[in-house]
Amino acid sequence: MVTIKTDELIDKCSNFLSKISTNKFLIAFSGGLDSTVLLDCLYKLSSKKELIIRSIHINHNISNDAHKYEDHCLKITNKYGIEHLSKRINIDGFSNIEEQCREKRYQSITDIAHKDECVLTAHHEDDQVETFFLRLIRGSGVRGLSSMKNKTMINDRIIGRPFLNISKKEIIDYQKKYNLKFISDESNQDNKFDRNYLRNHVIPHIKKRWPSINKNITNNILIQEIQSKFTSDNIELVLPNYYAENKNELLVDKLNKEDFHIKVIIIHEWVFMLTQAILNLKQIKEILKILNTNNDSNPLFEFSSIIIKKNKNLLSLSKKYE
């Protein structure tokens, strides 16, 4: 039995878990600072709450030291006596590495997660601000700018982010307080990746001039989330009017009768509801071009694992690996 001292971060984590409708949790454990603190919080909470926890490490096989990170995670979880799994994935090193890592990481984790488990990640407030800037730069709309959620569904599994409203400083303070051992992935310093460039160069300069940027961005995210929620609540009443035989097919002739802004919202929400992918306006415009092509041109739109085709009066969506 672990003796737990009163700790604000543990209390916040406990409060978050109390709102999840399960006591079984799969922790995404990279071995880095953030997930190390999350793992420690859950371990300590499990001694006074009826929690069933296990962890998973995803080895992206990008770093030369990837095997060391994998071994470190196994060592730490053995020390805690937590059931631990490791999964290796392969990344095509020639295009959109960040997006590939994210998609394959979530796919692997949700494949392993049980239906009655909630997957926990250690995303925190600073990660949220980075995500907002990334999506702003990439031209995301309201849904994209609402950024990450405290709780969401990915691949039919619950994803929980207990630290999303917690600052990096709080996490660092906790790590120092309990002298937790963690690893630093050198790839986090590689600024060829967009998120690293924002984290290491852009955002620190912004914070020097506007120290309250995190608070301001968080408020902006909330505004986007409110607007996005309103759209989601109402689109479910509208979309069925455009379905063909099933949700994966829309009627082209009905779509073409609508004004531009209506078509943009319909396509955006349709793709999101089926795949959780968030398209920007440029991508949606490409899809709208497909609506006006002739039936013999075999028009096609591809994004990540999504394929959208037009066949006569049907606009259909499928996934590459289905």
Strand content: 15-25%
Mean pLDDT: 90
Instruction: Specify the structural class.
Output: alpha/beta
- How many strands? 10
Oligomer classification = single chain
Main beta-sheet annotation: 6 strands, mixed
Topology:
Layout: H1 8-17, E1 24-28, H2 33-45, E2 52-59, H3 66-80, E3 83-88, H4 97-112, E4 118-120, H5 125-137, H6 142-145, E5 151-154, E6 157-160, H7 168-178, H8 194-209, H9 213-238, E7 249-251, H10 252-256, H11 260-275, H12 281-291, E8 300-303, E9 306-311, E10 314-319
Parallel strand pairs: 1-2, 1-4, 2-3, 4-6
Antiparallel strand pairs: 5-6, 7-10, 8-9, 9-10
Structure description:
27% of the residues are buried. The chain is of the alpha/beta class. It is globular and about 65 Å long. The N terminus is likely disordered. Helix 2 crosses helix 7. The chain is built from twelve helices and ten strands. Strands 3-2-1-4-6-5 form a six-stranded mixed sheet, sandwiched between helices. Helices cover 48% and strands 15% of the residues.
